[in-house]
Structure formats: C-alpha cells, structure tokens
C-alpha cells in the first residue's frame, strides 16, 4: 500500500521539480546565448564595416562603459547624477596630459585615469551623503557646469580653449589590423572587462547592499547596511568607469577640448541610460548605441534641426517602452517564450 502511495505521489512531486530545473536552466541559458552571439558579432563587425561605422561602434562601446558606471549609481542604487560628463572629461584629460606631457604608454593611462576619477568621485560622494533626489541632481549638475570654465582657465595644463591633441595608438604589426580596427578592439576589450567587473560587483554582497539602499534606505540601515560607506563607494566606482570611458575616448578621438564636455553631455548620458533601460544588464549597451547612432540618423533626416528629432525620438521611446529598450526586449522575449511553451504543450 505504501508503494502505491509513493507511486501516486511521484508525478506531483517530481514534475514541478523538473519544471523548476528547466526554468532555471532556461534563465541561465538564454542570457548566456545572447551574450555569446553579441560578442561574436562584435568581434566580426570591424571586418565587415567601413572605417567610419567601425569608429561609430567604438564610440558606442566607450559610452556604454560610461553608462555602465552611471547605471551602477542610478539604476542599482537609486542615486541621481547629472554630472557624469565631468568624470568622463576628467578621465579624458588625464589620459591626454599623461600621453602628451609625461610620455606615458597608452595602457598606463587607464589605471591613472581610473585612480584620479575614483578619488574625485569618492571626495564628491562624501558631501552628497546628506542629499537626495533633486538636491543631489542639482549638486552633480553644478559639477558639470563649472568644469568647462576650469578647463579653459588652466591653459598651461589643459591647453585652454584649444584643447590637447595626441597621437592615436598604432596597431602592432603582428595583428595585421588597420588603425580603426585596432582602436575598435581596444574599446571592445575595455567594455568587456568593465561589464565583467560590474557583474561581479552586483553578484557580491556589495551588490545586494546597493539594491537594498535603492529599494528602501531605512530598511537597509535597519538590516545593518552602512549607508555612508556604500553610497560613497558606489559614487566612486561610478566615476571610475566614466573616467575609464573618457580615457579610451582620448585614444579614439585623439583630441580633447572643453567644448566637447559641455553640460549637455551629462544630460544626454542620463537620457540615454533611461532610454536603454535603468537597472538592466543591456541598458548601457543600448544607451551607448542610442547616443552615437540616433543623432547621426537625426542629422541625415533633417540637418537643420537634429536636436528636435533626437528629442522626439526620446519621447517616442519613453512612451512606447517606459522601462527602456532593454525592458521592451525582455517583454518580447518573455512573450516569445510563452508562445513556444504553449506550442510544446499543445503538441504533447
């Protein structure tokens, strides 16, 4: 009799477990497949595109690294920043000065720019502890506003209004790559390492603490989360990633000037992150593509008013996809998965 009971209970106990395992495997498999496909396509892209489009993709990845830092601060911690263009500029100028004045190797400027922007972000994160929401946004916006006059004033170091010109890193002979392809792969490598770093942070205890701060600061503090520590730390990490993006920007553009880092850059970065998808893994990538290709598309449509078209496209995306392009893609993927599972169920 007991054997019959065991046999009768087997379908109800094993099947749900099988479904749970299948769901877990699917949850792991599809992101891995998507990431692999994107990386393979990214590696093949410079061999299939003209140099200008290769340059555009390199710039998109540079902005993706910067947006990755901004997403860590805004999307995963709930802190608002309108000044990340300033950290991007500091990283770019640090690299340009180190290359032109100190004759440092290109790769040596990456840790230098990261260190400078990390320290600056940490220093600015301390007074920002007492601020939230609109007040924090205004303080960070002021950083982006006064940076341009400061860069113009210290012309002996920054080149003033004329800026600084540096040579682009040349590809080693053994690679067989053209200059644009070499710069593209440098940007791609930087992006891959940056995304891997942030993925590790978010999976750790630090990531769980950041999400707790975002969801409810009071509850997080009750649970033992040190708000001051994590808020300043995430501000510093966010600034570091923006600085690394600015460093590689200097390599690709080979020129920096104050006008390239006006306050509109910071606003555009935040808008691009919202369009890409706040708090999502693919949001910075889609936001980087949006920053580079949408203005170019708007310029082709109407050369007289590209800003108007750019703004209208942002409004359209926000209306059609409130959770950003990454959220829209996730909804489509979920809908497609449901259709596939229903089809399999009817087939059985």
TrEMBL record:
Main location: membrane
CDD domains: TM_PBP1_LivM_like (cd06581)
Superkingdom, natural source: Bacteria
Keyword tags: Cell membrane, Membrane, Transmembrane, Transmembrane helix
Membrane topology: Multi-pass membrane protein
Compartment(s) of residence: Cell membrane
Name of protein: Branched-chain amino acid ABC transporter permease
Naturally occurring in which organism (per UniProt): Nocardia lasii
């Amino acid at each position: 009799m007991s054997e019959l009971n065991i046999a009768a209970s087997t379908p109800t106990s094993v099947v749900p477990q099988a479904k749970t395992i299948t769901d877990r495997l699917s949850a792991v498999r599809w992101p891995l497949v998507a990431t692999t496909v994107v990386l393979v396509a990214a590696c093949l892209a410079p061999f299939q595109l003209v140099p200008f489009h290769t340059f555009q993709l390199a710039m998109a990845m540079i902005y993706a690294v910067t947006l990755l830092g901004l997403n860590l601060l805004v999307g995963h911690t709930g802190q608002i920043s309108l000044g990340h263009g300033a950290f991007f500029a500091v990283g770019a100028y640090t690299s340009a000065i180190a290359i032109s004045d100190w004759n440092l190797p290109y790769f040596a400027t990456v840790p230098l720019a990261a260190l400078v922007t990390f320290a600056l972000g940490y220093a600015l994160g301390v007074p920002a502890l007492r601020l939230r929401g609109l007040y924090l946004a205004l303080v960070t916006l002021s950083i982006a506003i006064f940076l341009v006059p400061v860069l113009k004033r210290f012309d002996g170091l920054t080149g003033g209004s004329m800026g600084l010109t540096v040579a682009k890193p040349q590809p080693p002979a053994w690679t067989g790559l053209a200059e644009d392809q070499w710069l593209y792969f440098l940007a791609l490598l930087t992006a891959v390492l940056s995304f891997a770093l942030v993925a590790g942070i978010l999976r750790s205890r630090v990531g769980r603490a950041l999400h707790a701060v975002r969801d409810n600061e009071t509850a997080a503090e009750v649970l033992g989360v040190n708000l001051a520590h994590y808020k300043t730390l995430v501000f510093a990490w966010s600034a570091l990633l923006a600085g690394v993006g600015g460093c590689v920007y200097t390599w690709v553009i080979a020129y920096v000037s104050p006008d390239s880092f006006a306050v509109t850059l910071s606003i555009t970065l935040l808008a691009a992150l919202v369009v890409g998808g706040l708090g999502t893994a693919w949001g910075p990538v889609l936001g980087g593509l949006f920053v580079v290709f949408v203005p170019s598309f708007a310029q082709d449509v109407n050369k007289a008013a590209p800003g108007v078209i750019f703004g209208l496209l942002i409004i359209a995306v926000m209306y059609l996809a409130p959770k950003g392009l990454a959220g829209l893609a996730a909804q489509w993927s979920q809908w497609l998965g449901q259709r596939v599972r229903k089809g399999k169920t009817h087939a059985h």
